[in-house]
C-alpha cells in the first residue's frame, strides 16, 4: 500500500511509471530502479509529485521534512541529454545547474516580495564537494544561501549530482529559528548513497564511507593576515574545512575544545592564538556551519581559560588583547555574520556554542 498519498495522485504516479510501490514504506522510482524509503536519517518522506507529464524531462519531486528542523525537496530529472553526460562538467549539466542556482533567489524574492526578502543572497560561489559515499566519493555541486521565510532569515542549501544516468537535485531549508543540532549532512550523503545503490537500510546512512582526515597544516600566510596581534610560534596543525566533522554540535565543539587545549599545553599561548586565527582564515566565504562551530568553540573555550588564568594566577601580567572578552565577543559576532547569520542568530549561535564549550571545559581529564 502507498502511504501518505491521496489515491488519485497515487494512481497518476503509477500510471506514468515514474514511481511504484515496492514495500509498505518504499517507493520504487522506476527510471532509476531506486527505492525511496519512508525515512532517511530522521527525515520523513512526505508527498510525491509527478512533473514529467506537465514538464517533460523534469521527472519527479519528492518532499521530506524533519519536524522543527528542516524541509527538503528532492528532484530526479529524466532529460535524455543527462544520460549522455559523463560528469558535472558536461555543458548541459553546467547550464542546468546555473539556471537552478539562480532560480533559488528569484523564487525566494517572488515568494515574499518584502524589503527583508530582498536581502536573500548566495553565500559565495558554487563549491564542488565530495559526498562520502562508497565505493567512491560522489562529486556534487553545492550552493549555500540565506533566504527569508515569513520575514525571518534562514539557511538554504542545494546539492546537485549525477547517478544512474539521471540528475539529482536536493534543496535543504532550515526551519527559521530552529535549535536542532542536525546539520543535514547524513541526510544528504544518505540520499547520495541511495542514488548509487538503489536501496539501503531504513536509515540509509549505515554504509557511508567515513571521512578521511588529511594531514593538515595551518595556512601560515592566511594566519599572518588575520586581524589581531602577531605571535611567533612553531608551525601548528590546524583543522581545515576538509577535516572529519563529528555529527552533532556538542561533539564538534567538544572536539574543538580538546584540540585547542592540546595546542596550548604543547606549544603555548601564542601557538593557540595562531591556531584560532588559522581556523577562521581557512573557512570559505559564506562559511560552513559545522566548521564555523568548531572555530567558535575553540575560540570561546580558550579565551575563557585565558581569562581565568590572568585573573587568578597571572595577575601581574597583561592578557593578550586578542583573548579579552570584549574582543572575543566582537570577533565571534563578526565571524558568524560573515558566515551569513543575522545579528540575532549570531548571538544565539554564540550562546549555544558557549554552552557546549563550557561543558567540555568542565569535563574531567
From TrEMBL:
Residues 216-238 are annotated as: Disordered. The keyword Signal applies. Residues 1-24 form the signal peptide. It comes from the Bacteria. Keywords: Signal. The keyword Signal applies. Residues 216-237 have a biased composition (Low complexity). This is Uncharacterized protein. It comes from Roseateles aquatilis.
Amino acid at each position: 500500500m502507498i502511504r501518505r498519498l491521496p489515491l488519485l495522485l497515487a494512481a497518476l504516479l503509477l500510471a506514468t511509471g515514474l514511481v511504484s510501490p515496492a514495500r509498505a514504506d518504499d517507493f520504487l522510482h522506476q527510471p532509476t530502479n531506486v527505492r525511496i524509503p519512508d525515512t532517511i536519517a530522521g527525515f520523513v518522506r512526505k508527498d510525491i509529485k509527478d512533473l514529467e507529464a506537465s514538464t517533460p524531462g523534469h521527472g519527479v519531486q519528492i518532499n521530506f521534512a524533519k519536524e522543527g528542523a528542516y524541509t527538503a525537496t528532492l528532484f530526479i530529472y529524466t532529460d535524455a541529454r543527462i544520460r549522455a553526460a559523463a560528469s558535472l562538467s558536461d555543458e548541459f549539466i553546467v547550464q542546468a545547474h546555473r539556471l537552478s542556482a539562480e532560480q533559488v533567489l528569484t523564487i525566494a524574492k517572488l515568494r515574499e516580495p518584502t524589503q527583508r526578502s530582498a536581502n536573500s543572497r548566495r553565500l559565495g560561489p558554487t563549491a564542488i564537494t565530495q559526498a562520502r559515499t562508497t565505493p567512491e566519493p560522489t562529486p556534487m555541486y553545492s550552493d549555500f544561501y540565506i533566504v527569508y521565510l515569513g520575514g525571518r532569515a534562514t539557511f538554504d542549501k542545494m546539492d546537485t549530482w549525477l547517478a544512474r544516468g539521471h540528475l539529482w537535485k536536493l534543496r535543504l531549508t532550515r526551519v527559521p529559528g530552529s535549535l536542532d543540532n542536525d546539520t543535514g549532512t547524513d541526510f544528504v550523503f544518505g540520499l547520495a548513497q541511495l542514488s548509487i545503490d538503489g536501496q539501503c537500510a531504513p536509515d540509509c546512512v549505515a554504509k557511508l564511507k567515513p571521512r578521511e582526515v588529511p594531514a593538515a597544516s595551518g595556512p601560515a600566510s592566511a594566519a599572518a593576515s588575520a586581524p589581531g596581534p602577531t605571535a611567533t610560534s612553531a608551525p601548528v596543525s590546524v583543522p581545515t574545512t576538509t577535516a572529519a566533522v563529528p555529527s552533532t554540535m556538542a561533539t564538534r565543539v567538544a572536539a574543538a575544545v580538546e584540540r585547542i587545549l592540546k595546542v596550548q599545553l604543547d606549544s603555548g599561548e601564542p601557538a593557540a592564538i595562531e591556531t584560532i586565527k588559522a581556523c577562521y582564515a581557512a573557512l570559505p566565504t559564506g562559511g560552513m556551519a559545522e566548521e564555523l562551530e568548531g572555530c567558535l568553540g575553540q575560540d570561546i573555550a580558550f579565551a575563557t581559560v585565558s581569562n581565568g588564568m590572568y585573573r587568578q594566577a597571572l595577575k601581574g601580567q597583561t592578557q593578550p588583547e586578542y583573548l579579552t572578552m570584549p574582543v572575543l565577543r566582537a570577533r565571534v559576532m563578526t565571524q558568524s555574520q560573515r558566515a551569513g547569520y543575522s545579528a540575532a542568530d549570531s548571538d544565539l549561535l554564540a550562546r549555544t556554542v558557549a554552552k557546549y564549550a563550557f561543558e567540555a571545559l568542565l569535563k574531567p581529564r
